[in-house]
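sorry to bug you again but im stuck and you know this stuff better than me. what follows is a protein written twice so to speak, once as letters and once as structure tokens for the fold. mainly i need to know what kind of three dimensional shape the backbone takes. anything you notice is useful, everything is just below:
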Amino acid sequence: MQRLTIAVVAALAAALAVVSLSAAAHQQTRSEHRFPHRIVSLSPTVTEDLFAIGAGKQVVAVDEDSDYPKRAPRTSLSGVTPNVEAIANYHPDLVFISYNPGNFASQLRKLGIKVVDEPAVNGLRRAYREIVGLGRRTGHVRGAKAVVHSMRTHLAAIVRSVPKTRRHLRVYHELDPTYFSATSKTFIGSIYKLFGFRDIADGAGGTGDGYPQLSAEYIIAKSPQIIVLADTKCCRQSYATVAARPGWSAIAAVQHHRVVLADDDVASRWGPRIVQFARTVARIAKQG
């Protein structure tokens, strides 16, 4: 009888040990996956931000327009014409979007996939909040705060580098050769406001979305002192093409060679590389 009791106790102890080990393993798995570890980004800006804050290893796929950084797992996924099945095939536990055509996000949620919409921002303050928010969602708050601090510090220094006499220039931001532009109500416009520039698109009226289409006559009449070309990649615009436009040789920016050749992608995204853009603008603004 005693031997039987000892055997039963030993069996129970072994069973409890297995249960304990199983629970510990389950707890470890939950701990390891406290934050998403299979992220799909369908937003080029979010992709840049995720890698900047240190969450790159958690990203398993990015959309076809996410061309930076180079190490991002770029795919044929589209954030503009999304395919729910193709996205789900990556078995994501979190999908970031900045555009929701046909409310495809709801279809992903029905599959049990978490979706977070990070729409375009209209200023630096919101951009900073978005970056810190990405840090909280991915477990990289410290990295996110470091990125924001670096952006704030560098942008402040860049603005200070421009003499006060050069901080009230008229600026024209070109999105394409048909003269679509951006007002100070947009994110890119908020960068110009840091310098104190006067955006000529602000007085053009339009639909109120912050991206009016100007006319050549209007631009010539306003004679911007800085022209920023955010259509150098898409449309091969340059100082030479601008100077060759009828009547544009009379514009102050053309006369003084204050034409900024911006990277289309950098100028359209509200991520850390906007510091590079601001540095280029500052260099042109300081020219006589």
